[in-house]
Amino acid sequence: EPEVTQTPSHQVTQMGQEVILRCVPISNHLYFYWYRQILGQKVEFLVSFYNNEISEKSEIFDDQFSVERPDGSNFTLKIRSTKLEDSAMYFCASSEFGSPETQYFGPGTRLLVL
Amino acid sequence: DAKTTQPNSMESNEEEPVHLPCNHSTISGTDYIHWYRQLPSQGPEYVIHGLTSNVNNRMASLAIAEDRKSSTLILHRATLRDAAVYYCILPNSGAGSYQLTFGKGTKLSVIP
């Protein structure tokens, strides 16, 4: 069964450093998403991406965040200058064109900012 | 998204049916009802969705009230692997928004 994959599974970085989290969505999906979950809290929407552009973003997704689909398979989330409060699990998700609310999530990347 | 209300937690014995309720009294006519779950230390997982009619798939059944103001996710035989947080979500897709807004959900414990 096709699945969303994410790398790395864990990332430790120093405050102020840039990080890039990578995702490979399911191959025939056209909508891509990033969510995050701070330890013990709710899953929060960050951004959605369709047709090579951002379609929605939340207040969390400020200028420090960016997304890119550099080729036909990868979808990346970049945090330019990490803060302590960026420590969280980051989940990538993807969905088909006809059913964008039915989203398939990856296993997540645990980001720890020191 | 339309607001949903779920119990904070529920318990079930293994191999018994589980009925997880969700109230969504402000649902609009075009809102689909989606259920996701999150197993410990994993990403959310799609379970099922429906609009008006009851729905079945290999994971669960979804029973939707006639007035659509509530729904129930039914796990026919709970297993230990079903222990998770279950989320009832009504995406605001009628307004072109596909983001999922996760609440606190219902934490289901399955007792062996």
Describe the main β-sheet of chain B briefly.
5 strands, mixed
Mean pLDDT of chain B: 93
Helix content of chain A: under 10%
Shape of chain B: globular
- Rg of chain A (C-alpha, Å): 13 Å
User: What is the beta-strand fraction of chain A?
Assistant: over 45%
Span from first to last CA of chain B? Answer: 36 Å
Structural account:
The complex is a heterodimer of chains A (114) and B (112). With 114 residues, chain A is mostly beta strands. In chain A, 0% of the residues lie in helices and 50% in strands. Chain A is built from no helices and 11 strands. In chain A, the strands form 2 sheets. In chain A, strands 2, 4, 5, 6, 9, 10 and 11 form a 7-stranded mixed sheet that branches. In chain A, strands 1-3-8-7 form a 4-stranded antiparallel sheet, with no helix packed on it. Chain A is globular and about 40 Å long. In chain B, strand 6 (61-64) and strand 7 form a beta hairpin. Chain B has no helices and 9 strands. Chain B is globular, with a radius of gyration of 13 Å. With 112 residues, chain B is mainly beta. Classes of the chains: A mainly beta (114), B mainly beta (112). Chains A and B meet through strand 4, strand 5, strand 9 and strand 10 of A and strand 4 of B.
Properties at a glance:
heterodimer; A: 114 residues; B: 112 residues; mainly beta; five-stranded mixed β-sheet; four-stranded antiparallel β-sheet; 9 strands
List the helices and strands and how they pair.
The complex is a heterodimer of chains A (114) and B (112).
Chain A: E1 5-7, E2 10-13, E3 19-24, E4 31-37, E5 43-50, E6 53-57, E7 65-68, E8 75-79, E9 88-95, E10 104-105, E11 109-113
Parallel strand pairs in A: 2-11
Antiparallel strand pairs in A: 1-3, 3-8, 4-5, 4-9, 5-6, 7-8, 9-10, 9-11
Chain B: E1 9-13, E2 18-23, E3 33-38, E4 44-50, E5 55-56, E6 61-64, E7 70-75, E8 84-89, E9 106-111
Parallel strand pairs in B: 1-9
Antiparallel strand pairs in B: 2-7, 3-4, 3-8, 5-6, 6-7, 8-9
